Amino acid sequence: MAGILKRLSGGLRTACAVSLLTVATFAAAQGVRGDHPDTYVVVRGDTLWDIAGRFLERPWLWPEIWQANPQIQNPHLIYPGDVISLAYLDRVAEARVQPGPRQEAAPINAIALSDIEAFLKDLRVVDGFEHLPHVVGLEDDRMRGAEGQVAYVRHLQAEPGDRFSVVRPTVRYHHLMRSGMCCDLFSTDDLDFRGRRILDSRQFWTNVVTPDKGTEVLGYELMRVGAGTVTRGEVGGIQASTLLLDDEGYEVRVGDRLIPVDAQPYDLQFFPHPPAQQFDYGRAKVLAVADMLTSGGPRDVIAISVGAREGVDNGTVFSVWREGTNTVDRVEKGEYRDPDTVFFENKVRLPDEFAGHAMVFRTYDKVAYALVMDSIKPTRVGYHLKHPDAPY
Length: 392
Known about the structure:
The protein is mainly beta. The chain has 7 helices and 22 strands. The chain has helices at residues 10-17, 26-30, 48-55, 62-66, 117-122, 201-209, 330-333; strands at 20-22, 39-41, 83-89, 92-98, 123-126, 134-138, 150-154, 163-177, 185-190, 214-232, 241-245, 257-260, 286-289, 295-296, 301-304, 317-322, 326-327, 348-349, 353-363, 368-375, 379-380, 384-386.
């Protein structure tokens, strides 16, 4: 693959420009594509994932290859204008990077921020929200409030001039723990205007009958709907603070919550890498697809059922798999045998089917958001996540 030079000044940069990055292991050498270009000039709009795909069969392995040269202190940073070359010497791949006429100070990212910007800014997962201040009323007793209008907020400890984001609890992610069956269940619940979950009759029977170890709440998703500035606190017997809505977004309603504006709540650089550990089958799954869809493709965002407590961090790459069907062998059981009359253990388990790859870009304790990087079939809710090199 390619080598990456840290941004250096003067003679030190020139000295490092001719450094060779040797792929020292057979496994890494095996990952180099046979149809790679001899040289490539990095241009604005490139991503590390796309460039790695030009040189490697497995783009998530690029850090291991580029880190083979110990004198390069930061093998991640690569800039528009840099020239990447890859050649073979005695059947060993050698990568070389030469700084070109760099026109921008910022290095390229693993993915385009435009693909995830809305999710970085507008969505977050929290353990709870009941303690947050909430909108109790709106100007002129409206049902909805918009930019230029005011909202009235209870339990807001703030001074005039303080800014807050208005967020709405929309989804509860939870984990139904079972034993003696294939795997645990992961699902989502929609929330009403108070943030209380809406009972789903389709899940009620399953949730009551199957658990034997309980239900774990993985987190609540908060959607940003706007922002505002406090103009008056709870003074003179008034029991609500006044918030002037001054940011375009969704209409604010009673029940929405407030959190302080966070200037930089997320990372801006992502470096693809395999997960730090292997999960038990069924532990890592797709919880949801963005925009309330049930399936997605490349550059769609998914929520997954593992997070920081499982060792997942930003840049972790997973392969996505459709779970193999448990089917009735109609040759042995009879052509017209009703599948519902055949016990689970008497059915034939078919192989899981590969769908694509996804990379984590925002991590919480028990949940994370990931971007579908490539796919050969749609990624759907309930699909399994495995090591990117998993053969099945």
